[in-house]
Known about the structure:
Layout: H1 8-34, E1 42-49, H2 54-67, E2 73-80, H3 86-92, E3 100-104, H4 108-113, H5 124-130, H6 137-142, E4 143-144, E5 147-148, E6 151-158, E7 160-164, H7 176-185, E8 189-191, H8 197-206, E9 211-213, E10 220-222, H9 233-245, E11 249-250, H10 254-263, E12 266-271, H11 276-283, E13 287-290, E14 294-297, E15 300-303, E16 306-315, H12 322-332, H13 335-345, H14 352-355, H15 358-361, H16 364-372, E17 376-378, H17 383-397, H18 406-417
Parallel strand pairs: 1-2, 1-3, 8-11, 8-12, 16-17
Antiparallel strand pairs: 3-16, 4-5, 6-16, 7-12, 7-13, 9-10, 14-15
Helix pairs in contact: 10-11, 17-18
Amino acid sequence: MVNIKTNPLNKIKKLICLVAVLSLVVGGLSGCGSKKKKEIPTIQLSLWGDERSVPLLEDAVQEFQELHKDEVKIEYTISLEGEDTCKETVLGDPEHAADIFAFADDQFDELYHAGTLLEVTEDTDTIIEAVGGKESAIADVVTRDGKVYAYPMTAGNGYFLYYNKAYFNEDDLKTLDGILDVAAKNDKKFTMDFSNGWYIYSFFKGAGLELSVSEDGLANYCNWNATDTKYKGVDVAQAMLDIAAHPGFVSYGDDDFVKGVQEGEIIAGVNGAWNAGKVEAAWGDDYGAIKLPTYTLNGKQVQMCSFAGYKLIGISAYTKYPEWSMKLAEYITNEDNQLKRFEEIGECPVNVKAAQSEKVLEAPAVAALAEQSVYGNVQRVAQPYWDAAVKYGITIAGQNSGERDLQELLDTMVEEATKPVDE
């Protein structure tokens, strides 16, 4: 019989292991009681948008907050600021601008050169790829020296012709003369805002005359008073006077355009996609949209051109929370939110996938914008042009009641339009 003796060292080892296990258990239990809950930081962000955009911004911020509730608590304010006036407000007091604001692309250069736009450093490749890549027109708009300074939000900042199908046939819509004649015969009106430089550009550009901005965005080049070109500036001015004098014409801004459509006075007009929902609601099955027509210039038909523009989201260079501002701005302008913006206020997506969705492609306004884009040019104009164009356009819309010499009128407009911004 073999007598097996127990090694006393084994007992010691087991005792040491037992003590170690008990120490871990007790230590773990005591640690549970003292473990602190993760503290979530609170930040304050301000946003600017126009009246139609405020509900969309509100929804986007709340959705974003829910997605990131374990990372940050956002206290936010949303204030009214038009995309057309944003630049003046930002430049007037840059340090107190909203953290996140919407603006039209023609304001980009001045905001950029003033140093008021924060460089976008997060997900830039993804942002640009979503709108068609580095070679797309919108990429060129928001990029300087290979760096991105704004988020593309919409591509619908252009214009085209709305028309009521109950009054027009296909041939009528080819020329502005035909449209005006149909309107007059039916005691109705065609409208276009002659007091707005955004629209009157279509006549001069169609005639081959030029308007552009310097590289620093602080001055314009304009030859609309030219006397040695194929079509002279006075030829265009006279053509516009003839249109203004037609019984089928009236010069209306945005609000009056919509009102005229709703009340039955307007049966055709040049306007943008943001009013598509209201026009469709008024005209129903008779709602139509198409590219701009030709107009009569020195006895010949000339295609009307247009500005093609974008709306952007910028971040203030003075924001205290650049990281979260960038994350939120990217969310506001993502594919889903661009589609939502289209569905609720009729603004066309710039995001490629959103723009190719079935809902968007079925919209007459979007099809018209695409058709007009062949004759569209990216809006690059410094502020002095807009002020000068208003004075000129009001004079023409009033049928030059003061009987000013047209060459003198154009010379004055060009002189004012080409003044440097700081004058």
